[in-house]
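Quick one: structure for this chain?
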Amino acid sequence: MNNPQNPLIVQSDRTVLLEVDHPSYEDARDSLARFAELEKSPEHIHTYRISPLSLWNAAAAGLQAEQILESLGDLSKYEIPQNISREITEFIERYGQVRLVKREELLVLESEDAILIAEIGAHKSVQPFLVGRLDSHSLHIGGQYRGHIKQALIKLGFPVEDLAGYVTGTPLAVEMRKETTGGKPFEMRDYQRSAVRSFHLDGGPRGGSGVIVLPCGAGKTVVALGVLATLQCQALILTANTVALRQWRSELLDKTSLTSDEIGEYSGEEKLIRPVTLATYQILTYRKSKEDEFLHFGLFDEKGWGLIVYDEVHLLPAPVFRITSEIQARRRLGLTATLVREDGREEDVFSLIGPKRYDMPWKLLERQGWIAVAHCREIRLDIPDEARMEYALANRREKFRLASENPEKITVIRALLKRHPEDQVLVIGQYIRQLKDIAKAFDIPLITGATPLDERLHLYDAFRTGAIKQLVVSKVANFAIDLPDANVAIQVSGTFGSRQEEAQRLGRILRPKSDNSIATFYSVISRNSLDQEYAVNRQLFLTEQGYQYTIHDSHEYTEEP
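Got it. Here's what it folds into:
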């Protein structure tokens, strides 16, 4: 039934067009986010795509085809194309057609569809993992290949529902505190409890693995602590860097009953294994040469881990995927602000860590006051005439660097710092030479990968206390850095068109402010350049989460009124 007043157009190529200026835009956006992926976000019409993986994540979260079709029908201007209705139904039904289960000690792949089992058993990519056929509906899989078979089958279009269960792990008493160590009342927020329940699923075989998607500042760490307190077992927690590792340690001590003797650090600094051990991805992926073995993979089997937490799961290095495929009997919790991976390995996250278990729109959390209100502004400026010829003749990678390092950006940064004299400001960039120039020009402390850990921690602490109000930071500050009072970010360069990086950088200023002030996220961009071209892709993330961004000319900020 046609209703031209509705905001959506569903097209036969699996794309969905959404009118931005429609009164029902926000409701439609939040509905689409459950089962579709945002592809383009210009001013007036946003384009989403319904993909097999987006539908399988929806199915794993309990969404039925009828609910998706009803939602699209209620919001669409025109009838949903017949092929789309059929594909949504079939892709949703495909999740769970093939299951991994345990029969006594055997790992078994089973399906009610005997022909499907025969087809799977005949695939060359599957045969290395088969021990043999048990009957017309089930195949015996080698126990060590639980992850490998899931990876192979999702590439064939058959997402496996893993019901084979998990080891309990060595018991560990963990309670959530009613008060923090500083004496402040503490309890989990409703959405954090919901995330824990969605992951655990009452301890049944359908729970115990998967990804929680929440913005930076919304307390993903607290969700992990809630899971740990629910499972009451020893855990291995993997983090992006040593600074993040130390912050996890502080949170564990501050909000749970765990003592310092029960928490170990396994990093480049020290290697102490305890009932809850915190490790960095860097140490796990260290090896002396490309031909050598990874020296620290033994950590995964060192203790009776009942839970492995993957912080910033969108950054998971390829070697950690490899070892994860071999430890599928342990519960696995992934935490991230966005499921987008720049290497396109979202299917591996789905297969090896687990499907998306919980997601909550950023703007909804903002409306409820759990994260700060944020304004996003792009400031465009010209490449100076004397640099245009060099830019014109450069290769694509060099073009991006030249546009990103545009020296005129210093003038804009000066104007922005003048505009925010009392705010806590982070200047964030990709290119170290550019960041050094900015730090020197404004006499601001600089943190890069080369900054010693003790100095990093000292500067972060000084920024938190307000002893310093401005920091220049490289991409090392993208990940898991807790700077609750940061309320202005000035992005001067980024990693090409990285949506995940945009999520991390915006997240640096989203923790709720004690004075309820508004956060501001500036991106300083060279006009008519690759810098601007890649910025369009990064903006997809902002749009996906409901943020509107405004575009300004640099003269609006640099010229005196």
